[in-house]
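Please, structure for the following, as tokens.
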Amino acid sequence: MTEKERMLSGQLYKFPDSELNALLFRSRKLQRLIAECKEGEIDRKNSLYKQLLGCVGKKFWIGSPFYCDYGSNIYIGENFVANYDCIMLDVCPITIGNNVLLGPRVSIYTAMHPLDAAVRDTRVEYGKPVKIGDSVWIGGSTIINPGVTIGNRAVIGSGSVVTKDISDNVIAAGNPCRILRSLTEEDRLYWEGRLKIYESSKKNI
């Protein structure tokens, strides 16, 4: 089993390794090319992101700068938006659903290190995958730790540190992140009403 295979399966692996180094250099080159894109070069920038990432939907927007380890272990659905300064450490898979919004400086980590110092000093490490469901909104400066799953339609407040799974249809925030309340029918009706007012105002212009 190669170090890459060990890494992706969540086992201990040692870095640096020639194969992993080559993948990192490829990722860094693509990230540099993305950062060098001019304002109007949207098609070129999106094409580079499609080369960098393992998968991304047809419609997406990622603000610069964007940082990742390999990129190839990041899988993103449709209608994805990541604001500026997003970091994704993808030593294990990061899987993101459809219609997900990330605020500025959101960080998603899959990388882990042994707790024992003597073992850690040998430079072995490991990872745990992160999964984010559909229609999730994650506020700015949130940190999502390794092994976390965030459920569908969840809202994570800004500045949160997510250390445990978050269920569907809830608002959660804090350090450590905790569920504050469920999203309700009252929430839905309120925001549908606000949307109708907005759409009506547009028709009257």
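The domain at 3-203 is CATH 2.160.10.10 (UDP N-Acetylglucosamine Acyltransferase; domain 1). The CA atoms of residues 89 and 109 lie 5 Å apart.
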